[in-house]
Structures are given as C-alpha cells and as structure tokens.
Automatic annotation (TrEMBL):
Residues 1-35 form the Hexokinase N-terminal domain. PROSITE patterns: HEXOKINASE_2 (PS51748). It is an enzyme of class 2 (transferase). This is Phosphotransferase. Pathway: Carbohydrate metabolism; hexose metabolism; Carbohydrate degradation; glycolysis; D-glyceraldehyde 3-phosphate and glycerone phosphate from D-glucose: step 1/4. Its EC number is 2.7.1.-. Signal peptide: none annotated. The keyword Kinase applies. Residues 44-284 form the Hexokinase C-terminal domain. InterPro entries: ATPase_NBD (IPR043129), Hexokinase (IPR001312), Hexokinase_C (IPR022673), Hexokinase_N (IPR022672).
C-alpha cells in the first residue's frame, strides 16, 4: 500500500545511488508510447504474454473522471487493466470456474485467465484430465502427473499445436517428458492437437473481441466518407510473439468481426520490448538535463 516511487527512491538513497525516478509507467502505456514514437498512427497497445492488458488513446473530453485542465493535445492514454474484465456476457466453462476457484485470486482477472499465456496450458491440462478420467484416453489409469496443477505450460501446448510431423512426434514427446504418458496412439495425439486448437482459438478470439471493443469505443469501427482511418495496434508479449497459431487466429478474427473493408485499416505491429523502450522515452521526456557551462 505504499508509494513505490518513494520506496524505490529511499532504497537508492540508502545505497548512495545518484538516480531519480522520473516516470512510473504501466507496461501497456510504455508499449503505446514506444510505438507512437516511431509511428504516429499507433493508438492501441496490447500485451499478450504471461498476463494481458491493453491501453489506448482517448479524447480527454470523453473521460468523465477527468476534472483537471485538458492536455494540449486533447488526448490522454487510458490504461484499461482489461485482464480484470468480467461480464455475464463472457462465456465461462466449468474448467474456467474450477481454475478460478483454485487460483490465488478467485474472482479476479477473469479475462486474463481465459486468454493469456499463464493459463492456456492449465486449461488444456484440466480438459485432458477430465477426458482421462471419463473416457480413458490415456488408458485405464489416470496418469498421476496429469493431476498436478500448471504442470503443462503454454509453451509446451504451443509446441504440440504447431507439430506438423506425420506421426505428431512432438506431441508424443511432450506427453512422455512432461506427463510421463508413453506409447500414445496417433489418434490420441490428434485429439490433443485438436484440444490445443480449441483452447488457443477461444483465447485468441476473445482477445480480438477486446481489441474490437477498443476500436468501437474510439468510434473507428465504421468507414468514413474519406475512407477507413488507419489504426496501428502495437503488440507485445511472448504469447503473441511465439504462439503463431494464436496470433494468426487473433488477426483473422478481427477481419471477420470488422469486415474485410474496415480490417484493411487495422495494422498489427510487433513491438519487441516495447514497454521498456516506451518507459525509457517517457522518462527521458520528463528528465531535467543540466548542461555543463
């Protein structure tokens, strides 16, 4: 509950480090700032990694909670914390409810729990466990390792999903190395790949729906007389960068939701370490320089 900047400043003073904290920047705000520095059309930033969040540029007059002087640009960046989004319209499965109940923060970060990298592998594990118990997909006995929460990580799920070998060797190796399930049939391996696809597709489509929600809020989801207004979305995070099927599905879903004509105005730009670069730029813009005379 303490001021993190004040505490960091105290710690630096204690160690006699001559440094000043000039900016405390959320990762999505940093990504947006870094992207905007090189491309003025960047107006949305999304992090899809272990967790997820988004930020966008809003008209200051459209912010009811803002009571101070309006910024000269007339715009302000909104950090959405969309990972904590929850709605009765957000469809949750029994696996989602069970995972949420068992989590360290039940009832919180619901959107994050169904579309980010921390949780996709765990959702897959829970589905596989249920099928092992009720359908015996791995034999008469349920593999003991399959009962361990978070033993199946999203990078392993991604590797299985992207397996293009004729015998799905990667899937077989992952099941053996991680879950100690040996001698799986090709039919079982295909089932695992299909489940990877289902879990990843749902997460990607929900993330795309979130981006569409931002575009709608900005009033840029319909064509104008002068043509569609270009929107660049700065994307960062390991899930988006490394899980190719996930990122492809996200982008294709936005085309599906917006329509091909409008979708041509949406550009996804991978901003590698965008949050760190953006934070550095914001800190530099807020720094006090002393020139030697």
């Amino acid at each position: 509950g303490k001021d993190v900047v004040a505490e960091l400043t105290k710690a630096m003073q204690k160690r006699e480090i001559d440094m000043r904290v000039s900016a405390l920047v959320n990762d999505t705000v940093g990504t947006l700032a870094g992207g905007r520095f090189t491309n003025k059309d960047v107006s949305i930033a999304v992090i899809l990694g272990t967790g997820t969040n988004a930020a966008y540029v809003e008209r200051a007059q459209a912010i009811p909670k803002w009571h101070g002087p309006l910024p000269k640009s007339g715009e302000m960046v909104i950090n959405m914390e969309w990972g904590n989004f929850r709605s009765s319209h957000l469809p949750l499965t029994e696996y989602d409810h069970a995972m949420d109940t068992d989590s360290l923060n039940p009832g919180e970060q619901i959107f994050e729990k169904i579309c980010s990298g921390m949780y996709l592998g765990e959702i897959l594990r829970r589905v596989l466990l249920r099928m092992a118990e009720e359908a015996g997909i791995f034999g008469e006995e349920v593999p003991p390792k399959l009962k361990n929460s978070f033993i199946l990580r999203t990078p392993e799920m991604s590797a299985m999903h992207h397996d293009t070998s004729s015998d799905l060797r990667v899937v077989g190796d992952k099941l053996k190395d991680i879950l100690e399930i040996s001698n799986t049939s090709l039919k079982t391996r295909r089932l695992v790949v299909e489940l990877c696809n289902i879990v990843a597709t749902r997460g990607a489509r929900l993330a795309a729906a979130g981006i569409l929600g931002i575009i709608k809020k900005m009033g840029k989801d319909t064509p104008r007389e002068s043509g569609p207004e270009k929107i660049v979305v700065a994307m960062d995070g390991g899930l988006y960068e490394h899980y190719t099927e996930y990122s492809k599905c996200l982008e294709n879903t936005l085309v599906e939701l917006l329509g091909k004509e409008m979708a041509t105005s949406i550009v996804f730009k991978h901003a590698n370490d965008g949050s760190g670069i953006g934070a550095a730029l914001l800190a530099a813009s807020n720094s006090v320089y002393v020139e030697d005379k």
